[in-house]
Structures are given as C-alpha cells and as structure tokens.
Write a structure and sequence with these properties.
- With 245 residues, the protein is mainly α.
- The chain has eleven helices and two strands, in the order H-H-H-H-H-H-H-H-H-E-E-H-H.
- Helix 1 crosses helix 4.
- The longest helix has 34 residues.
- It is globular, with a radius of gyration of 23 Å.
- The termini are far apart.
- It comes from Kribbella alba.
C-alpha cells in the first residue's frame, strides 16, 4: 500500500476518533444536565465523566456555550423523534397540535435541563451567540430547531386552511408557541407562584405541576385559534344580548 493511502487511512481514523470523542463529551454533558441541571454542570465534571483532561474539551469545542448548544441539539433530536411518533397528517389540525403540545410539555417536565438550556440561548441576541458559537455549530442548532418548528408550522397551515386557526404568519407563531411553552415550563421548574393577600404582603405558593401542564397545552391551542375564538365569543355575546328584552 502506498504511503499516500496509508496517510489517508490514518487521517480517516483520526477523524473518526475525534467524532467519537465529541459524541462522548456531549453524552456526558447531557447526563450531567439531567442529574444536576445546567448551572451545576462544570467543564471539570464533564471531563471527569468522559475520562479526559478538560483541555481536550476546548480542542473540540470553542467554549462552554458551544458545548451546551450541541447538547441542546441532542435534546432537540430526541424531541423531534417523539413528535414524529405521535404526529399524523390525516388527523384534524387541532388534535395534531394538541398531541405535539403534550409531547413537548412532557419532554420539558422529564428533562428540566432541556428547558433551562433552551431558555438560556433565547436570552442571548444573535450577535452574542455568533460571538460565542462557531458558524457550523450555529447551523446545526438552527437546523435542529427549524425541524421541530417546521413541524408545528405545517400543522398551523393546515389549521388555517380548514378555518380553525388564526391567519397569522405560521413561522412566527410556531416560534411564539415554542417560547411560550418554555416559559410555562420554567414555572413548573421553579415550582412557585406568587400572589398577594394584601398590598405589600406577597405570598409564595407551590405550583401544581398538573395544573401547569394542562394550562400550557390549553394556552398553545388557544393561541393557535387566536382571534377566531374572540370573534366567536363576540358573536355569541351579541346574540345573547339580542335575546334580552
């Protein structure tokens, strides 16, 4: 075998080892996320879990934010598999959206670190993200998010065509529903709600997880219906008012 072919073989083997190590690092990061949450997952702990020096992590990833972004890509890949398993094009759009919303909410409850990681990225501007994350990783993240969001957009378009959903830009609305649900799941993550029995005396209560779950799903469906529900309500109110003497 020529030296050129041997060199190609060695390069291929090195590339494969690099990909395997990157997968191991992402897998360890996700394990620590699920065990401790994103805040308590440190690079030192990730390196120990993989069995490498932490300096090697920075040879594979531009920084902690990039590693976390790729871990989010891993979560999103599993989420999309679950969404695909319950989605059915022949079902009514409202039922399809409900099924996807239930899966999304339950995924967030099962993996609180996923919601934390997703919310953390949403707090950054695009300029900040590009300053912390390389373009190839941003492309992977965008593709993973886009796959899940497009699945929702397709259902919203079907619902608009059948007249059950509001005529709003579906790409915008899919992003809105994604963010809206993450916000509700943060309430479940914190497990707290605040009220006031009297001015200046706030009271902290425990948030019932089942209530947060059902409200989040209902809010998704209500937002999709949007102004159509308001129009229907106004018509119903007008008819009732007309019946009164």
């Amino acid at each position: 075998m020529s030296s050129a072919l041997l060199a190609i073989g060695r390069r291929r083997t090195t590339a494969e080892r690099r990909r395997d190590r990157e997968r191991d690092i992402i897998r360890a990061t996700r394990e620590l996320f699920d065990e401790r949450g994103t805040i308590d997952a440190q690079i030192d702990d990730i390196a120990k879990r993989v069995g490498i020096n932490k300096a090697l992590i920075y040879r594979h990833f531009a920084g902690k934010e990039e590693l976390f972004a790729l871990t989010l890509v891993d979560y999103l890949g599993e989420l999309d598999e679950r969404l695909d398993a319950v989605d059915g094009p022949r079902r009514a759009p409202m039922n399809r959206l409900r099924a996807l919303s239930e899966v999304f909410v339950d995924f967030c409850l099962e993996y609180p670190a996923f919601a934390d990681c997703a919310m953390s990225l949403l707090r950054r501007t695009g300029e900040e993200l590009f300053g912390e994350i390389t373009e190839p990783v941003m492309t992977k993240l965008g593709t993973a998010m886009g796959t899940a969001l497009e699945r929702i957009s397709v259902i919203l378009r079907a619902g608009q065509k059948s007249g059950v959903f509001d005529e709003v830009d579906t790409d915008y609305l899919a992003n809105h529903l994604y963010t809206q649900t993450l916000g509700a799941m943060h309430m479940a993550r914190m497990g707290l709600i605040v009220s006031s029995n009297s001015p200046g005396h706030p009271v902290v209560h425990h948030a019932d997880i089942d209530t947060v779950r059902s409200t989040a799903i209902t809010a998704t469906l209500a937002t999709a219906v949007g102004r159509k529900a308001l129009t229907s309500t106004r018509r119903s109110t007008s008819r009732k008012a007309g019946d009164n003497p």
